[in-house]
Design brief:
Chain A: Keywords: Hydrolase, Metal-binding, Metalloprotease, Protease, Zinc. The complex is a heterodimer of chains A (about 190) and B (about 450). With about 190 residues, chain A is an alpha/beta fold. Chain A has six helices and nine strands; from the N terminus they run αβαβββαβββββααα. Chain A has a five-stranded mixed β-sheet, with helices on both faces. In chain A, strands 3-4-6-7 form a four-stranded mixed β-sheet. Classes of the chains: A alpha/beta (about 190), B alpha/beta (about 450).
Chain lengths: ~190, ~450
């Protein structure tokens, strides 16, 4: 019975909710990277809601807490884990910006490309670096959704990053300790 | 990053409490929250919090008054006050009353992380002082450094000795020996572990780019510099900067680096504001820096400034007893990352790996195992899965007979003891091959 349940859950897999225009090859590569990292099937669904009500005119940014709640309520029912992929600048009330956030040990997370672009920091754009940062943020947030916390290992994807160069320093893989914890979390589903 | 540090958030705004709660939970802290000073004081009386993050403006009792009361019965708690306005008076008053620091809402994520890491480091130093008194030191986060040979135990002992200090370290060793892993181990076991370790691969950057990377730049410093940007020294504040391939930096950069190491201050490219940064420097090189000093290509004063402690990592050929444990480690690592069942290695393959000399060191062994798992049969790593050239196992001290025996054995194993194919590759007839097999008493593992 347990095997059957696991199989059904695995079939539901991880869903990426895509807001805005992402290149197909970026999404294809992201699906591949997430499937490799978590061993679960990944599917895409479009974000069909109007994003404007989530815009805070005073901060000129989008409310990440409310967007996380929206993705959780409207898009997460049929997946084991769901991540909203955004193109807009995200904030939470207490912080000036975030790259992404997730429900710790929950079902949902969100991530944004906005602050990952070199151009935000006066450096020439680089699509390869941008994608590398994005996949790390998405895998990091999924790690939280699977119950992982931040890690001291400098190259582990669960190392916290508050600026983009921080993200560049780590790899897109989990360290041994986080990998073991992730495996045990995956096995318990 | 699981820690035993506990944080209490006190703020009357629910969204602030929730945001901070989630942020700290992801950092591995134990977190609780209170909506006002009264609730906070009740919780503090019954629980023991290490850090209290309190809003300065709350209905009823304000954060400053609450801070004074907390200090009456918990003098060791670190109190950080939050304010929506950068009010110098209230901040000064809070600091005068013994608050650890203050922060203005909304916070820059980097500022918040920095503040909490500072507080965590203070708490950690307190407990480390206790540990030091008892002389108990165990290294953490060294799972990727595999080996129990005498040579590696010596290296780890040196890591343990040097980690707690802020001394500069030069890590030397051939390519692929794991210099960066040793740098990570030093950082992860130092009091600086709560702060970033920033790596710069000096060899990959031109002089101008390296200067901008290390020191940052001001808006307009050069074409395309549209915003101010922090440099790596600034990012490493409180933590460690790791300069890989230090021998490749130009004489001009050597002068700049020496100046920064002496003053711990610098200016961004195109700027004139002096920036201070408290970093520890670790360098790595596969070159002989002493020789470079002698021939004038590396500054002697910089060498002595960097080389306070030297950790030399042995090449893999000098610690061959670590090969079996390294092989098991890499098999487990790659089977897990490729979501495959754990496989084993056959005796002949392991023996060949133990005979090989590894010019590319541990990295070469790792690549071989990864490749063997990819191309292998999914059950075990076999000799034929290893990308070893026949002459790569030849020892220059072997006699001609020994060379011939090894070469024939390797060829036979490569072709699964298919005599016809092996004879064809060796360019001898089958009868001669049988004679050689008898002469050298070779036997197939299947027999």
């Amino acid at each position: 019975m347990r095997n059957l349940n696991t199989k059904l859950l695995k079939e539901k897999g991880i869903t990426l909710v895509v807001q805005g225009k992402f290149e197909k090859r970026v999404l294809d590569q992201l699906i591949w990277d997430i499937e490799i990292a978590f061993g679960w099937p990944v599917s895409l669904v479009p974000f069909t809601h109007d994003i404007l009500p989530y815009f805070d005119a005073a901060r000129k940014q989008y409310d990440a807490n409310r967007l996380l709640d929206l993705v959780y309520r409207e898009y997460s029912a049929n997946s084991v884990k769901t991540i909203g992929l955004f193109q807009v600048d995200l904030f939470i009330p207490i912080l000036t910006y975030i790259f992404g956030q997730a429900q710790h040990n929950g079902s949902t997370g969100i991530a944004s490309l906005y602050r990952l672009r070199n151009q935000q920091y006066g450096i020439k754009g680089n699509e390869r670096i941008l994608y590398d940062r994005f996949r790390k943020v998405v895998i990091h947030e999924l790690g939280h959704a699977f119950g992982l916390i931040h890690c001291h290992v400098p190259v582990c994807v669960m190392r916290p990053g508050t600026y983009v160069e921080d993200i560049d320093q780590k790899k897109s893989q989990f360290c041994n300790k986080c990998r073991e914890q992730l495996e045990s979390s995956l096995a318990s589903i | 990053m699981k820690t035993s540090i506990s944080i209490l958030i006190v703020d009357d705004e629910e969204s602030v409490r929730d945001s901070l709660y989630n942020w700290f939970i992801e950092d591995g802290y134990e977190v609780d929250s209170a909506a006002n000073a009264k609730e906070a004081l009740t919780k503090i009386e019954s629980g023991n919090f290490d850090i209290i993050l309190a809003d300065i403006k709350m209905p009823g009792m304000d954060g400053l008054e609450m801070h004074r009361r907390i200090k009456e019965f918990n003098s060791t708690a670190i109190v950080i006050v939050m304010t929506a306005f950068a009010s110098v008076e209230t901040a000064v008053q809070a600091l005068k009353d013994g608050a650890f620091d203050y922060i203005t809402k909304p916070f820059d994520p980097d500022d918040l992380s920095h503040l909490i890491r500072n507080a965590a480091r203070q708490i950690s130093l307190r407990s480390e002082n206790e540990t030091l008194k008892n002389k108990i030191v165990t290294l953490e986060n060294i799972e990727d450094i595999v080996g129990n040979s005498e040579n590696m135990i010596r290296v780890l002992k040196e890591v343990e000795n040097v980690a707690a200090s802020s001394s500069s370290v030069i890590i030397t060793g051939e390519s692929g020996t794991g210099k960066e892993l040793i740098a990570h181990a030093i950082h992860s076991n130092s009091p600086r572990k709560f702060f970033p370790m920033v790596t710069v691969h000096c060899g990959a950057l031109s002089e101008d780019l390296l200067e901008s990377e290390l020191f940052g730049h001001e808006k307009g410093a050069f074409t395309g510099a549209m915003f101010n940007r922090k440099g790596r020294f600034e990012m490493a504040d409180g933590g460690t900067i790791f300069l890989d391939e230090i021998a490749t930096i130009s004489m001009k950069m050597q002068v700049e680096l020496l100046r920064v190491l002496e003053s711990k201050t610098f200016t961004r490219v195109g700027g004139n504001k002096e920036i201070k940064s408290d970093f520890r420097i670790i360098c790595a090189t596969n070159k002989d820096l002493k020789k470079m000093v002698a021939d004038g290509s590396f500054r002697e004063d910089l060498y002595y400034r960097l080389n306070v402690v030297n950790i030399a990592i042995p090449p893999l050929r000098d610690r061959k007893e670590d090969i079996p444990v390294l092989v098991s480690y890499f098999i487990k690592k790659y089977c897990t990352s490729m979501s495959r069942d754990l496989i084993t290695i056959d005796q002949a393959a392991l023996q060949r790996l133990e005979e090989y000399n590894y010019p590319g060191n541990v990295r070469e062994l790792e690549n071989m195992i990864e490749r063997a798992i990819v191309v292998g049969n999914g059950k075990e790593v076999r000799l034929k899965d290893l990308p070893l050239e026949p002459d790569s196992v030849i020892d220059s001290n072997d006699s001609l007979d020994e060379l011939e025996k090894k070469y024939i054995q390797k060829t036979l194993e490569k072709y699964d003891w298919n005599i016809s194919r092996s004879a064809k590759v060796l360019q001898i007839d089958r009868v001669t091959l049988y004679n050689k097999i008898r002469k050298y008493q070779l036997s197939s593992p299947k027999n």
